[in-house]
Amino acid sequence: MLDEEERTGLKVLCSLAHDDEKIPWDCEDCEHPDRKGGKQLSEPERQKESNRLKCHRGCIGKSAQPYTLFDGTKYWTCPRKIQRSSLGQYMRLYLWYDHKGTLPVGGGVLDQPSKVADAYELIRWAFNRIQRILNEEQERRAKRDRMRSKSKGR
């Protein structure tokens, strides 16, 4: 069974899969900052800035602000960190299963480890929930646009 931290981590991965641009940086930004305020950094300054970014974004400890996931869950660790964790493997396996129908362990669904089954179930739930949220938002926008066009036609 997945623990609560793993379940939240998989939700993070599902959020990133649908809206990767909400996290505008990548790990390279924190690992190797070259400039700050247009000024080239020396090696000690680069290390200090790297640590500052990692602390601020949640690579080390809690982030300065939480990341809010599609279901309202607050998450205090850098989402990019989750992508590189073992949870990223669950996502890759699920996507392979979803596209090709291939399970990670030979046999049928009941032959899969319980963590894999839990992960697949959570990922499927999260993707469906995200799609519902996106559809509802699209419907709201379309309704708002219809109302605006009606008011302009008067």
Textual characterization of the structure:
- With 154 residues, the chain is mainly alpha-helical.
- The protein has one domain.
- It contains 6 helices and 4 strands, in the order H-H-E-E-H-E-E-H-H-H.
- The chain has a two-stranded antiparallel sheet with strand order 1-2. A two-stranded antiparallel ribbon has the order 3-4.
- The termini are far apart.
Topology:
Layout: H1 4-18, H2 27-31, E1 35-36, E2 39-40, H3 43-57, E3 67-68, E4 74-75, H4 79-83, H5 86-100, H6 114-152
Antiparallel strand pairs: 1-2, 3-4
Helix pairs in contact: 1-5, 1-6
Kindly provide the radius of gyration, computed on alpha-carbon positions and rounded to a whole number of angstroms: 20 Å
Order of helices and strands: HHEEHEEHHH
Please report the number of helical segments.
6
Describe the global form.
flat
Low-confidence stretches: none
Strand order of the largest sheet: 1-2
User: What summary fits the major beta sheet?
Assistant: 2 strands, antiparallel
Determine the mean pLDDT.
80
Secondary structure class reads mainly alpha
Q: Strand-residue fraction?
A: 5-15%
Termini separation comes to 59 Å
Strand tally is 4
Q: What helical percentage do the residues reach?
A: 55-70%
Instruction: Please indicate the count of domains.
Output: 1
Question: What structural keywords apply?
Answer:
154 residues; mainly alpha; two-stranded antiparallel sheet; 4 strands
Q: What is shown here, in short?
A:
With 154 residues, this protein is mainly alpha-helical.
